[in-house]
Amino acid sequence: MRQFPSDVAFTPAVKSVQKAKGSRASYAKVEQGRGWQTQVTQDLAGFLSGLDMFYLGTANGEGQPYIQYRGGSPGFLKVLDTKRLAFADFGGNRQYITLGNLSENPQAFIFLMDYTNSQRVKVWGTAEVIENDAELLDQLRDPEYPGKVERAIVFTIEAWDMNCPQHIHKRFPQRVIAPVIEKLQDRIAELEAQLADSLSGSDSGS
């Protein structure tokens, strides 16, 4: 049994290194205080609703890790209840590394990045592949995406923590940048037309 939710990451080996490097005391205060969360809160649900990507970490039976990028419409990683998240799994390159890993090792990790606002959330837990639950698959389906949902991956939360934003470089998704670029292009076209009219008037006047 873990004494604190953060023990899922802060193993005895990690705590030993923290002690040697001088950070154990500060993290011990966090453990005794508010600590890490173990359920979906309004803050986490709100954070998820705006994200269109995340990274999913799994490992095989030998402990070899694997990280996979997952992308979709904002909010495609959905909250099922206070302990579970889920997303639809579509056909890809058909390597099935994540599925194979989860078949022998359910431990998983979700790394959530909001590059626009320089925020990140780390989520530890276990994941399960669900193939034949029509109601769940329909719940996770994106009506604007034509791909066929092949299965669901359900993630059960053990602990999560919103991490320090230090060193996160800002990046903006196309859906945010595209309207700005379009507006600038329209303005450039307008100015070019005005310039052309001005030059045409000057030529006729001479």
Task: Describe it.
The protein is α+β, with helices and mostly antiparallel strands. The protein has 2 domains: 1-35, no CATH class; 37-163, Electron Transport, Fmn-binding Protein, Chain A (Pnp Oxidase, Chain A). It is 36% helix and 28% strand. It is built from 6 helices and 7 strands; from the N terminus they run αααββββαββαβα. It has helices at residues 12-21, 24-32, 42-49, 97-104, 134-140, 174-205, and strands at 53-59, 65-71, 78-79, 84-90, 107-114, 119-130, 149-163. A 7-stranded antiparallel beta sheet has the order 2-1-5-6-7-4-3. The longest helix has 32 residues, at 174-205.
- If classified by CATH, what would the architecture of the largest domain be? Roll
The count of β-strands is 7
Shape: extended
Counted by DSSP, the helix tally is 6
CATH superfamily of the largest domain: Electron Transport, Fmn-binding Protein, Chain A
**Secondary structural class:** alpha+beta
Beta-strand proportion? 25-35%
Largest sheet: 7 strands, antiparallel
Briefly summarize what is shown:
With 206 residues, the protein is α+β, with helices and mostly antiparallel strands. Helix content is 36%, strand content 28%.
Which key features would you list for this structure?
Pnp Oxidase, Chain A; 206 residues; 6 helices; alpha+beta; seven-stranded antiparallel beta sheet; single chain
Topology:
Layout: H1 12-21, H2 24-32, H3 42-49, E1 53-59, E2 65-71, E3 78-79, E4 84-90, H4 97-104, E5 107-114, E6 119-130, H5 134-140, E7 149-163, H6 174-205
Antiparallel strand pairs: 1-2, 1-5, 3-4, 4-7, 5-6, 6-7
